[in-house]
Amino acid sequence: MGNAPSESNMGEQLRCCKCYNVLPPCRSFSDFYRSTIHGRDVYVFNGGEYYRTVGHDNSYECEYCFNKPIRDQEQLRREEERRREEERKMEEEQQRAKEAEEKKRQEELNQRLEESQHQAQEQQEDQLSRDISEEHESKRRVLISHLDEFEANYDSDSDELLETLSSRFNIPVPSLSLTQLTADQLGNILSALDKLLFEDWISAPPSLSTLQHTQVFITELCALSLEMSQGLSLHSVYDHVESISQSACSVSESFLLTQALYLTLMHFFTGHGSCDSDAALIANQWAERDLSTEDLVLTEFLGTLTSSLHNVVGRASVFILKMEIQSLKLLLFTLTHLNDKESHSESTEMLLRLVQTNQWTPAEAVKLLKELIKNLYVPN
What we know:
Number of domains: 2
Strand content: 5-15%
Radius of gyration: 41 Å
Largest sheet: 4 strands, antiparallel
Order of helices and strands: EEEEHHHHHHHHHHHH
Shape: rod-shaped
Helix content: 55-70%
Structural class: mainly alpha
């Protein structure tokens, strides 16, 4: 080596083995030393201007090329951290946007309901300022006439339904069990119920106990048509029918409820029931999960019964009856508790007030709610 390192007089042969740039000479032994850097055993020249791995002659690396792998790793690490931070912020922003959108939808729904309530209130005040039309007065008199006729027969406590069905089809009363009936016998019973409810009993109304027994009988037929087990769904349907029945204020109203139950039965028994009804569409939007069979059965039943009540009551009265309101109340309660939390209760309470003040019918309220939800929950 002499008095100076060999790197002192290599001239242009002293180059970086990676980028091939010419490196400055190292003129004194005091200008280089041996060290371990980045896990490598190297000679360090001119205070770090370039390096050479021990045992690898002529494998010089300039400072840039020597430290580049470490710089690249650090840059990748920082970029990964930055990417994760950006993803986290994006997720937070998306969550905030989702919550804001949901809040906006709810506010819009409430606003539209308030506007509808205000409009309906104005219409009601308008209507109250005029005399009742002759058509409405005529319907009211017919309703009073029917009420008097039904109340006159209230003192009859005998249960006529099973005896009537038994005598018509020559089937012993003990054999009138739903589990023992043939398909033909069941069809005959449905025809008999239709004739009783929409012909015979209109002119010769039965007792309250007969109507109540008929309601139970039809509810059992509904359960049979829906193929429900003897579980929670069946008990829930019974409980809800009993609650609505108790809200009937007279024998005539109980008769209207019995007619509505029969129409509900035929809706399901003839296969017209489907999962795209107004109540089902609302339930699927609000449930935030797949609906269980029990939830779907109860929602479909209450939705159909509410519609059927509207149909039969609308032919007899210009007023909304308590049992209609009770049916709607049970339906809205079921809808707002589908996801185990009282969501949308403010909107449904506002709708219920519209119905309780005779500004909207229950059927109109359900349809309005469905249309608002369809407009607010538009898929992205």
